[in-house]
Specification:
heterodimer; A: alpha/beta; three-stranded antiparallel β-sheet; 26 helices; B: alpha/beta; six-stranded mixed β-sheet; 10 helices
Chain lengths: 517, 243
């Protein structure tokens, strides 16, 4: 019961946020559904009459269907960038299979005797198609459409992965900020949307079927007014979109961590409150820097918070620079020359990697430093997110410097790491030095005694061109310089991750406290 | 006189592959108002011969005249619209009511609303359909009723010729006899030329004023049932009709 009220409160507190996501979700799925229906049915009819194309088309669509959705979203980033069009392409590709197949099967499986009878009575090919084939194949086509629509609405939940928004964002945000009611609300709304749409089609299906039998007047009015309401809702949704687009708008993005949500929100809110520029948020992009950086280059994103270490080692793939200030200056120059991007300022804290283990384990075995750990490392299971195993400044480099030999290594989602620690699935994890959960779970942060991990100072990266278009932006963002030290960042993270406040609230009250808004 | 013949098939051959004639130099004259049945073992070409008459199937050699006119000089769609056509079990469209099934034929030929209404009225009076049956879907009617609807549909355009391919093959014996009787009196009343393909000897001889007996793509004998029974053309016919 308490849980239920929590969900209801969450919804009402953030109503406008959920409405926004719902709206994005509907726009995206509705556009995809319309395109799929047109292309799918068209292709289904085409291959009915062109047997040579049939094998090829069905084979290709079948093949595409087997590619995992996540991979498909990723594959289209170089082609379509991130956001709406990418998501649309992927949704369309997935939705085509059931529609093409059911259209073809439905039209093909019409009893040949009936077609012969119609032809023998002097029906023209188009009369045969529209009066016999189409109505007899329609139930199969409709069931294909129904499958596709429910599938598309559900799949659109993944679109937030590449920044196309939608209800998936709420789910993702819930996972990232350890907020269960958020996850549930997002999922519930997706399910509800799919269910409602399915019911609506079922309703339309029945009224089509009963068209032949005379309906009572009352029923007729009910049917048509139902249909009218549906069409009006669709029209309102479609028509209300364009006015949003004409405004002056910039896009602020963030990676999928609570800290990045907070920093992104601080940037976005600061701009919104102090200029007339409207801000579009693409927060929690699951691909992280590898998705955001390309989008910065193509203009899909204008501003985002980045860490100096990530930019230098991961994006530029340069050799480590130990001094944080020299690193920042080198970055500033390289970004400007190579990318046309500007590092505006640093927030004032260093969120570097560190290794953490439970205080009791560490105490018992007297482990204080990484070198201490390396002596006992074969007794421990190490857990980290996928990134950490790939990058140069991750486990590979660490093992070279410290000769760590863990008993086992587990790849975890970045957000499930601490849970795995709590369940004792892993004994040692990598963690960020500003992570609120280190304190919350009473973990010991080990000392990087050979200074392996570079500085990861958070800063603001912006597109040069955006700064030129909006000259008021740069001085405004410079006000955020050195405003957040490590201690403050841990507190802000703690408010979101442990106290379950929303990033908006936390960012808002922070800006108010600093008298910036 | 060519014009006395409703259908005049002259030396027609048809093959799908070389040296394999499905129809082998067949000639057949059917007079106006006549009821002709075509019978023979399966694969003898009887259905193909019927389909050649309304160009549902083409042919390779010979000439086919329908109502005195070479079928190749007709637009096939127009030709088919002027000939009634009924195949197995009536082949009613399951998504249309009986009324709509009959209207289908009239509508595709561009008949007006009034004409449709009038024809439906006449045909349902003739077939004995009540209002409920007219608005029912085929699946909710008995086999016999479905066949009646099929006949009504074939007659909708008031054709001078009706072609039927095994129309009663799926019916039980009692219903079948009943429908045979009905169609015979309908034939006498309307004066329409009927050509019916059947594999049932009893039916062929009961309905046909003349019967064409086919074997291996040829017409072996074409005569009245009485004369065929009394003077079979050869041993094969004798064996065939004595089953």
């Amino acid at each position: 019961m308490k849980f239920f009220t929590e969900i209801v409160t969450t919804f009402f507190e953030r109503r406008s946020y959920f409405y926004d996501l719902l709206f994005q979700h509907i726009i995206l799925s509705l556009t995809a559904i319309t395109i799929i229906a047109v292309i799918g049915i068209g292709t289904g009819i085409l291959i009915l009459y062109k047997p040579k194309l049939r094998q090829m088309v069905l084979g290709a669509v079948n093949f595409l269907y087997t590619i995992p959705a996540i991979a498909m979203f990723g594959l289209f980033i170089p082609l379509a960038g991130i956001g709406f069009s990418n998501a649309l392409i992927v949704l369309v590709i997935y939705g085509l299979l059931p529609v093409i197949r059911n259209t073809y099967t439905g039209l093909h499986n019409v009893d040949p005797l009936l077609l012969d009878a119609a032809k023998g009575m002097g029906a023209t090919p188009s009369q045969i198609f529209f009066r016999i084939r189409w109505p007899l194949g329609f139930p199969s086509i409709l069931s294909g459409l129904r499958t596709m629509i429910v599938m598309t609405i559900a799949l659109a939940g993944l679109a937030s992965f590449i920044g196309a928004g939608g209800l998936g964002q709420a789910i993702y945000r819930g996972i990232n900020t350890n907020n269960t009611s958020m996850i549930l609300l997002g999922s519930l709304l997706v399910a509800l949307l799919a269910l409602m749409t399915d019911l609506m089609i079922g309703f339309l299906e029945r009224s089509i079927k009963s068209r032949a039998q005379p309906l009572s007047k009352k029923k007729k009015i009910l049917r048509y007014s139902g249909l009218a309401v549906f069409l009006i809702v669709v029209a309102v949704i479609f028509l209300s979109k364009p006015e949003k687009l004409v405004q002056r708008e910039i896009v602020v993005a963030s990676k999928p961590t609570a800290e990045q949500y907070i920093l992104g929100e601080i940037i976005a809110r600061h701009i919104e409150e102090n200029t007339n520029i409207s801000v579009k948020r693409k927060f929690g992009m699951a691909g992280g820097a590898s998705v955001i950086h390309p989008a910065m280059l193509t203009g899909g994103i204008d501003i985002y918070p980045e860490y100096t270490g990530t930019a230098w080692l991961y994006i530029l793939k340069e050799e480590q620079i130990d001094d944080p200030d020299s690193l920042f200056n080198a970055l500033k120059t390289r970004y400007e020359e190579q990318f046309g991007l500007e590092w505006i300022c640093r927030f004032g804290f260093n969120n570097t990697y560190t290794l953490a283990m439970s205080e009791s384990d560490a105490n018992e075995l007297n482990i204080l430093t990484y070198t201490d750990l390396s002596r006992k490392s074969d007794e421990f299971v190490f857990g980290a997110e996928f990134d950490f195993f790939e990058r140069e400044d991750g486990l590979k480099g660490l093992q070279e410097v410290y000769a760590l030999q863990f008993k086992d290594i587990v790849e975890l989602d970045i957000n499930l790491k601490f849970q795995a620690m709590e369940n004792r699935t892993v004994d040692v994890i990598n963690a960020f030095s500003t992570d609120s959960r280190i304190r919350h779970m009473n973990l010991r942060v080990l000392k990087d005694n050979k200074a392996f991990f570079p500085a990861y100072e958070a800063g603001i990266v912006a597109r040069q061109r955006t700064l030129d278009t909006f000259p008021e932006l740069k001085p405004l963002l410079l006000q955020l310089q050195d405003l957040i030290d490590n201690k403050t960042m841990i507190e802000l993270n703690y408010d979101v991750e442990i106290n379950n406040l929303s990033p908006e609230e936390v960012a808002g009250s922070f800006l108010k406290k600093k008298k910036l808004i | 006189m060519m014009n006395d013949n409703m259908i005049n098939i002259q030396n027609v051959s048809k093959s799908y592959r070389a040296n394999d004639l499905v129809i082998d130099h067949v000639s057949l004259k059917i007079e106006k108002g006549e009821f002709v049945t075509i019978i023979g073992p399966s694969g003898c070409g009887k259905t193909t011969l019927l389909r050649i008459m309304n160009r549902m199937t083409g042919f390779n050699a010979g000439k086919v005249l329908v109502m005195g006119r070479d079928v190749l000089s007709w637009d096939p769609i127009q030709l088919r619209r002027s000939i009634g056509y009924m195949i197995q079990q009536g082949s009613l469209f399951p998504h249309l009511t009986i009324k709509q099934n009959i209207e289908f034929v009239l509508r595709i030929s561009g008949k007006s609303e009034e004409v449709c209404k009038e024809r439906i009225r006449q045909l349902s009076a003739m077939m004995g359909f009540d209002n409920r049956q007219l608005h029912a879907y085929p699946s909710s009617l008995s086999g016999g009723q479905q066949q009646r609807a099929g006949i009504a549909r074939a007659l909708a355009m008031e054709p001078e010729i009706v072609l039927m391919d095994e129309p009663f093959s799926a019916l039980d014996n009692i219903t079948r006899r009943k429908l045979q009787k009905e169609i015979r009196s309908m034939h006498q009343e309307l004066g329409v030329t009927f050509v019916m393909v059947t594999h049932d000897l009893q039916e062929a001889f009961a309905l046909g004023e003349r019967a064409a007996i086919m074997n291996k793509g040829k017409i072996v004998q074409y005569d009245t049932p009485g004369r065929i029974q009394d003077h079979p053309e050869n041993d094969w016919v004798r064996t065939f009709i004595s089953i």
